[in-house]
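Researcher: Go.
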Amino acid sequence: MAVGKQIVRYLEANAGADLSEKMVFIGGPRQVGKTTLAEQLGDKLYKGNYQYLNWDSREDRTKILSENFETKSKYIIFDELHKYKNWKNYIKGIYDKNKNRLNISVTGSSRLDIFRKGGDSLLGRYRYYRLHPFSVAEMAGMVYKGVPLKDSPDYNGKTDIKLFERLWKYGGFPEVYLKQDEAGLRRWHNERSDRIIKEDIRDIESIKDISAMQVLVELLRGKVSSELSIESLVEDLKVSFKTVQHWLDILSRFYYIFRITPFRSLKIRSLSKKTKMYLWDWSELKDEGARLENIVASHLLKLTDYLYDTQGYKVELHFIKDKDQRETDFLVSIFLSL
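Model: Structure:
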């Protein structure tokens, strides 16, 4: 699981294998370890012979726009490049011109797999990975390589209840999980949503009322695990239905929340048409019931994203609520082609 003090992330082998053929995009929440993963790939695969460029740095931004790359570098990491309006056309051009001599990673705290309608696309030039916070399986050394629902994961470790308790209390984000500092955790909670809204979202999205979006974030913490009523949020926030929908989409795109949809089947008389909502950082939740459901949802979402991103299985996470008021919190659907 770790080399010295360095934690080996669960996506390292898959992302490293793809780098030889395509660009690797690594998305995920702020401070989940995306840059660290990209740099570890540089250290291991290219013996440190790589260049790191961060769009938030004025000096690096100049190098990016002038295409001033170190000639000896075999690998370039572009961090937060999605904040550049024309980043997709830019990275497409860089890749097409240099694919025979450069390997490229792009990391960012927003979804990197959303394309504009029309025009050129990056399709076929990259692999996209969603990096999740630590989970019980990852920290216990479990590796899922087989056929879902058929083969068991490779397991070389031993699950300890203390491992779950640590994740339960501190969440799965590396900084707070590794430090195990309660004061640091409180400060993390105070700062995280503000940084996402005031820095990440404001840099890209046109939000006229930032304070109202901050109120929305506070309201959402009390709605975890229940069916999400946009009408109720509209009434609380005094904004339009369309605005609330847009804000929820933004918070999903920047990995603050995730939503799961009701499972639909001809054999199930589905009642619910609303989604259920969870946080990427379950440690923010004070209600133990909501936190427990959230941590389970997060672990299941991590599995479904892993199977899709690394093995191409069409896997989705749902819930069930039928017309007889019977409810199943989670259902993982998977399409296994013959």
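Model: The mean pLDDT is 89.
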